[in-house]
Amino acid sequence: MLIIPAEQTINWRKPPVATLLLIFINFAIFFYLSGKDNRVWQDAAHYYEQNQMVKLEAPEFADYLQRHIGLGQDNRFELSAAARKAVNEGRGDELIPYMLTDRKFVNYLLQNGQEFIEPEAFETWKSQRIYLQEHYLSQLSHLQMGLIPGEMELADLFSYQFLHGGFGHVFGNMVMLFLLGFAIERILGAALYVMAYLFCGVVSGFIFSMVEGDSLTPLVGASGAVSGLMGMYVAHYRLQQIRFFAFLYVYFNYFRAPALIMLPVWVGKELYEYFTYVESNVAYVAHAAGLVAGAAIIFPLDRLAPRAAQEITHSPEQQDQSMREELARAMEAVGRVDFQRARERFKALWEKHPEHIGIQEQLFHLYKVKPDTQESLQFTITVLEHALKMQDFNHAYFIWSEYQKYAKENSRLEDKYHFRILNTCLNNNLIKEAEQVFGVVVKSINNPELVRECYRTLIQALKARQMDVKAQKYERELRQLEG
Q: CB 3.0–4.6 Å: which of 188, 335, 356, 360 could bond 192 by disulfide?
């Protein structure tokens, strides 16, 4: 069963840079370490087989599992049965992947093996095992940087989040990170979002280690941190009705429910599976801890990012009935060519949903009808100031260029806005756009000193980017202007 929040859709005008970067880092680490680990694993297995260690360890491994299950110290019932059968049928080689990395089994043999293994054979095996551990197994990434509950270190609480056990593991986690991360990034902003993501991973890893106690099996994967994003998502919306996507076997559909109601459902599911599937390698406790950590941390973080929180709460994708009705009435006025009424209705919508790009664009189109009005100019200045304040530089340029297109010679935008957009484009490496702004500046600004300053700013930026030919062209124009 899979149920995930699906209230938001991604806005590629403001791509989720931090989320995409996290995904890239996870994949890059996985592919780099998987190649290294495969080589180390092959060398370790070769050394293990070359020294025929399986002959001694396989029978002891089957006995070890049976003994510890009987004492209530192990719950790998299926593996125990399979191990006993493999030993009886002379297929001990099948147990090599388990015996190589089961550190509790190895420690048990090192401490007690001399009681039931001949002294000479035990000493030979012991030296080989220590060599195998020090020269091969200790180099495996999940043992170096995974979170081992019995040997927990602070750095491991962070590093384990970027390790994965296989391609399916990392791919599944990254799909969920993308589906959830872009919305939380919009709520908190990139910096707070990344810190909250890592915090949830740390908390889930810590709680997992407390529950697992002295376990020497390493925990790897981003699922605890990703579960934290699910907790943040629903806790941010609290009891608002939002959309969820549900998948159960072959059935899938969308449904709406109060957001926070899903939190106990998810936590309950993870705890149920933890107590039911005792032999599973899935870290259900880490998932549950991540969900709770995410839900808890979003409350103070919401107050630290009020604008972003407002954006996500009142986003166009919320699709509430009242907004749909208002949009329909506004579009109806457009259909009747009643542009005055359409402007009034879209403006009322825009005041409620200032981040809604579609509403802004509709207003731009409506203001094209009367580009020389004070209302048109004031609308442009308001959204331009907001875009610059939110550091949405691409959208700021879009607003400026749209106004220039429909206002043309009627443009009454103050000189300072042309200059600010020019600087914004240059500071964000939008050279082509900067030159377009500069062309307007030269033609429309009546202040000669400001024009010369624009020339100098553009020339300096071009030289810094080693675009000398263009820089020389503008230098010649500047000399003519000054001469």
A: 188
**Measured CA angle at 257 (ends 256, 260), to 5 deg:** 140
How far does CA 282 lie from the centroid of its chain?
Answer: 21
2-26+152-313: CATH topology: Rhomboid-like fold (1.20.1540)
Task: Please name the residue that has the structure tokens 């059968």.
Answer: 85
The amino acid present at 17, given as its one-letter code, is V
The Cα–Cα gap between 315 and 338 comes to 27
User: Which residues fall within 8 angstroms of residue 150, CB to CB, at 6 or more apart?
Assistant: 212, 213, 214, 215, 216
- Check: CB of residue 65 under 8 Å from CB of residue 80: yes
C-alpha to C-alpha distance for 80 and 405, rounded to whole angstroms: 75
Domain ranges, ordered by start, for the chain: 2-26+152-313, 51-144
- Residues counted in the chain: 483
Q: What is the pLDDT of residues 316-371, one digit of tens each?
A: 444 456 677 777 788 887 777 777 888 888 888 878 777 676 777 777 777 766 76
Q: Under DSSP, is residue 440 helix (H, G, I), strand (E, B) or coil?
A: helix
Closest-CA residue to 458 (of 441, 483, 446): 441
Q: What is the pLDDT of residue 483?
A: 64
What does the block give as tokens for 356? 């809604």
Is residue 362 helix, strand or coil? helix
Measured distance CA(398)–CA(410) in Å, rounded: 18
Three-state secondary-structure class, residue 235: helix
Strands of the sheet with 2-5, listed across from one edge: 2-5, 241-248, 251-258
